[in-house]
Structures are given as C-alpha cells and as structure tokens.
C-alpha cells in the first residue's frame, strides 16, 4: 500500500523535507533550531556557487520523489532499551508497560488502530456490527499459523475472549465479561452482548485482547503455564531467548502470514538500569530505539540534535496520557471546589509544559485527551491567574495569616524520576505564591502506590492513559461506582456526581456516535467545572530512534506495534 | 579433638547468627509500605480488586505476620527459599543464575585492590613525606571520598565515550564473538571499568591502612635491629615490616571478602552488570520479598564464612592471636 506508506513517514517534519540542511532526511521536531546555526553561507567562487545551485535543485527534485520509492530493505538487528525488566512477556498474565513492548511483537489481536484510532484489520479480515449493537461478527484471516506450526482458528478467539481475558487481564476483564463469543465456523466468530457497548470495537488491539493459543492454554493454570517462559503467538517475531538481567531476544517469524514481512532479522530488548547509561547507549549506537520513560526528558532535546537520531512524539495516540495532581476530595480544604479551582489558576501550566516536560507535552483542559474523537475544547478554562486564585481563596474564607499562609497541605510526589521531582518542586513554589504552603513528601513506587490506593494523601501527582475510548480509560477516574479503597487507578479522589455517573453510563451503551459526542461534551463541561483533580498536561511521550530505523511508528501504538513493517536502512 | 570442638562451636554460632539475620530481615523488609501487588498494579496502569486479592493470597501476604514468619523460617530450614513474587520462578535459581557475574566482578576488584593497594601503601610508607607519598595519599583520599557511581560515570565518559577504548556497560557485547577465547576476552574487556571502579575504593583503603601500619611498625625496635644486622633494605621492608603490618590488611581483606556477594550494588547498576546486587536492589523496589531475603541470606552466609576464614588466617599470620584462649 504505497499511498499509506507515504503518509506514514511521520518522522519527517511536517513542514516538508529540507535536503540542503546537510544530512538529508534528518527530520526532527528540533530541525528548526538546527537551521539557524547552519544557515551561514560560505561565499565560494562563482563556479562553485553555480554547482551549489545545481546540487540544490537536484536535491529538491530528488526529495520530491514519493517516499514509497524508499523500499524496505531486508535484514538487520534492532536493539531497543527496555526498563524495568518485565516480570513476564505474556500479555494478560502481565500488563505492565515493559511487558507490552516485546509481547506485541509475538502476539496479535483481531485489529489494531491507526493514528486516529480507526480500526485496521489484523487477525480479523472484516467484521459486521448489528444495527442494535448486540452482536459483532468477525471473519478471521485464514492461513495464519502459530509459532509452533499449528493453525490459528476461531477456537483460539473463543478461548481468548471467553476464558483467558476475563480470568487474567485486569484491564479488559470488565469488557469481556459483557461478551459471549461463539465460533460459527473455523474462521468466523460471533460476539453476543446483552446490551450495546460502544467501546467494544476499540478493545480488540493486541494490548487489550491478544489472541492466545487455545491448544497450549486451555484447561491449564494460565499464570503458571510453562509456555509463559517461551511464548507462542501469531506475530511477526518469535521468542528466542530471555537472558535474565541482560536482554530478551526475538527472531523473525519466517512463516508469518504477511508474506515478505517482517523485514528485521531480530530484535533485542536490552535491560539498562540507569537512564544516563541508556542515553549513552543511544549516542554510541549500541541501541537504536528508546521510548517513553527510558530517557529523561531533559536529555531528549540533546539527543534529538545528534546526527543520526530522530525524536518523534507520534505513536502514543492510543495510550493518550494525561498527568494531573490528584486532590483528595475527602479532606479539607479540597472538598470545596473553589479551592480546587484556585489550585488550577495558581499553576502556570505553560511553564510546566516547556520547562518541566521540555516541550514534550500539551496543556490539558479537562478529563478527555485532545486526541480522542470525543474531545471538546469548549469547557471551563483555568488560565494562569494568581489574582483569581487569591480571590477564590478569599471567598472561601481562607485569608492569609501573619506569614501570608492561607492553608497548609502536603504533596506526595510521584517517584518515577527527576522530571516528577522538578514538578513537585514547581507546584510547591507556585502554590506558595498564593499562600498555599505545600510540604513535599516522598516515597518509592510501592510506597506511593500503597498510599495513593488507600487515600492516604492530600495531593499527589500521577498520570494515566485515557485509552481508545472514554468508557475504557476516562470514566474510571470519575465514577462513583469505581471508588474502591486499596485499588490503584480507580476513583481515588472521591469525586461523586450523580449526573456525571448517569451520563457516563448512557454514553457507554449509546450506539450513535453523535449522541455519544453530545454526552461526553456535557461530561467534560461539568467535570471541568468542578475540577475534582488538577489536570496539568497531556504527555507526548518521545520515541527516540536511529535515523536508519524506518516505518517503526506507523499507528496509534507506536513502539508497541508489531514492527512487521519496520526496517533498517543500511 | 580441639579442632573438632572449635569447628563445632563455630558452626553452632554461625547457625544462630544466620537464623537471627533471617528473622530480622524478614521483619525489616515488611516495614516498607506497599507490596508486590501494588507495584504490579502501578506498572500496569490498571488494577482490579480481584487481581490484588489474588496476588496477595498466592504469596500468603494476607496472613498474619507471625504465621508468615513461621512458614518462611520453616521453609528456609528445609532449604526451600520460595518463588519470586514477580516472575514465579524459584528464587534459588534466580540467585544462582546471577551469582557468578557478581563474583566475577567483586573477585576481580578484590584481587586488584589486594595487589595494588598494599603495594601503593608500601611505596607511600617507604617514601614517606616525599612526593610519591603525597601523591598516593591524596589519590587515596580522592577515591575514598568520591561515590562509586560518580567514579563509574566519569570512567564511562572518559574511556568509553571520549576515547572509545572500552565498552560502556554490560557484561558481553551484543553480538558475542565466536570462539571461547574471543568470548572470554570480550567479558574481560567489559570487566575492566566496573572492576576498576569498585576496586579503586578498596585500593584507597588498603593503601592508607598499609601505609599507616607500616609507619607504625617501622618505628619498632626489632626493625632497628634488623637494619643494624646489615640486612638489605628491601628485606627489612618485606620480610620484617610488611609481614608484621599485615594484620590490619588481613582483617580488612576479610571484611571486603564478605562483601564479595553483596557489595557491588552501585557498580552493577551504573554498568548494567547482571549480578545479584542489582537483583536485590530491583527486588527491594518491587517488594519481591522472597528474592530479597534470599539475596540477603546469601550475603550473610558469605560474610559469616569469610569471617571464619579471616579468623583462621589471622591465627596463622600471628601465632599470638588465640594463644591466650588456650
């Protein structure tokens, strides 16, 4: 599909190629800065200036060639960083972020989703949704084989959706508990629901619903199954070796159903514990791919300037992460919406965006991520306004005491690295300017998780994925029914609004996209107005890779895609 | 007979110490808030109460503490160290898998320090208060004071990034060369920087220790006698001064040997060396109690063992030790 291939070359800057800037296709988001310092022309003799113009023109002509002319080259070994070392590499048994990177190369789902979260067929060739939304029929791809040679059939899908996902996959359990799957024939399955569930069509990716081999897992203890140590999937790469403490080694699946793919010979996921060492590995070329939290944001800009390395923020559309300060609505003064709004007004989120996230972020406006089709930008806004914040606090009766302090609160910082430490420090500084004295508390990941889940905090910083549909990733933070003590990523703030609960419930089962859009707009307006949590930024996770790696970031999953199309230029 | 009594006595003491360590460690690790279920949930960006309850029940984390302790001690006494909470593999396998890498690193650092340290100390003592002495003493102070991770990163920056002589991290090249000799050399090349980083700290200690002990011994009467007898200077220094100044070095070497198993956490983290120090550090952050306790136990056993060996060596080196106990 050459046309699609052309539109997928997203690591080139959106403004077009700049061939004369030395290094050809070194498109990065920092290309502009580069240009200014390289712009000095040296005044050669008349003849050399003519040759230069000719070269320039030739370059422009060459550059205008369709990008599809760059045919993928076969061969090459890709080295990627992976940290921390995952506890396992079978999705469902583990759904930690580091599990997903290698597992998505070995397993596949019925479909995947592109940059706009529109479905792309993978193991399902086509599908039909009944008008009442109560049944989904999938025609499965034929001639697909598992890595051990056995054929992929509808039985595997039935097993995965009826037994495997509901039993092990904590995120997808609620989705697949609504569904009963039957095999109509060896290559057709039908999913039956009791009530319509709009997010279902966006729940069939590898990360949410990988298809598992029934012949290896049926009737066994899924978590203790020895196949978990040497997984068998249908994906473009097969498991070769996992040398604990060093790397995971995957090799090309020569019997892959997409003929001619994958192009890469092998992929190594190397465990490098120190972020400085990971940056070094990229610089020295020992690894060619690092993503998300592997490199500290402060280093990303520096790495982006290096010749041979490319930084892109595309490929996280499915993930769509928002970071926020969670305010414990159960504690004073956070139970008063005016205080919460004052907190939002006191924060310069543009400053946070440029100086703490180093530009790899977008200011958040409310509960939904701007990449969602249901996003509505017209919600109550909270511009940086210290006067307004002070006025709200005055209105509440929190006047400054002798030393100018209106309230004393604590902030439990997220312990994921330097960036979050800086964020905590900034929050303390910013809120201090309106008289809210913040005391910083710190912990490690387990300690933070424990306190957060058990509501033992005043304020804490956190981030969460909004996923492909608001009913999957957004509602969990605001629904009254999802207030569960001791469980992370539920409604930990304690926000409760019956209207919002009802709107979410209606939107989850509505089948008309327009109706859903209306409902989610109303939700965004109400929730943004009450500000139960202080949304900060939408994090635009960077993926840093060698310029030689092509077609790796081609859909909404970025580095978490199967890499069937990825190739290394020589 | 006396030897048997001596050994028997030591075994009993060692067993009691190890038991106390096991119980103490067990209680200590549980003081840290949060557990493995929390960590797994945090890394997944999703959790449900089922998953948390199930994970905790699987590892007995929902039982009362004394019950858990009793079960654990019982298991350890029957040499069953349990399974890792995170990977569900037997902990003993995981530790034994990574132990050789650590022993290689700490062993190399140990030998390096033991050879170079006292040598520099002797040099400093012999050339006391001259240029060589000042240089060595200052260098010793610098490497003693600088944190290991800082020294490590500086070495990587200089030798790997700037000069490109040595690999920056890891134990092997990504594509290991074929042939046993080439593979051994590959590991050796990767070993240089971490062993140097870890060893320089101990070199500093040995150098200062040796220098101090030698200067003290050099002032004693029998040294004057030896010189008066007309012995060559090098014989005075090695056979008389150094031999008698060895005691603190042996003592400290015994201490360092105890760290052979557990003492390389920082160096392993900076250099991504796949040893058990890093295993323990990760296990702590992930609240993988079984794994952490197994590493602590291995460390404790090494320390107790090497303490014993040091004791024996000291008795050999100085017959006066232990003589009073007869």
Strand coverage percent of chain A: 15-25%
Mean model confidence by pLDDT of chain B: 87
Q: Provide the low-confidence segments of chain A as ranges.
A: 1-44, 64-68
- Dominant shape of chain B: globular
Radius of gyration of chain A: 25 Å
Question: Helical segment tally of chain A?
Answer: 17
The biggest sheet of chain B, with number of strands, parallel, antiparallel or mixed sense and barrel status, is: none
The chain pair forming the largest interface, with residue counts per chain, is: A-B, 53 and 50 residues
Strands of the widest sheet of chain A, in order across it, are: 14-18-13-17-15-16
Largest sheet of chain A: 6 strands, mixed
Q: What structural class do helix, strand and pairing data of chain A support? A: alpha+beta
Describe this protein with a few key phrases.
heterodimer, A: 570 residues, alpha+beta, six-stranded mixed beta sheet, four-stranded mixed beta sheet, 21 strands, 30% helix, globular, disordered N terminus, B: 326 residues, mainly alpha, 13 helices, 76% helix
Description:
The complex is a heterodimer of chains A (570) and B (326). Helices cover 30% and strands 18% of the residues of chain A. Chain A has 17 helices and 21 strands. In chain A, the strands form six sheets. A six-stranded mixed sheet of chain A has the order 14-18-13-17-15-16. Chain A has a four-stranded mixed sheet with strand order 1-10-9-8, covered by helices on one side. A four-stranded antiparallel sheet of chain A has the order 4-5-7-6, with helices on one face. The model of chain A is unreliable at 1-44 and 64-68 (pLDDT under 50). By secondary structure, chain B is an all-alpha fold. The mean pLDDT of chain B is 87. At the A-B interface, helix 8 and helix 14 of A face helix 2, helix 3, helix 5, helix 7 and helix 12 of B.
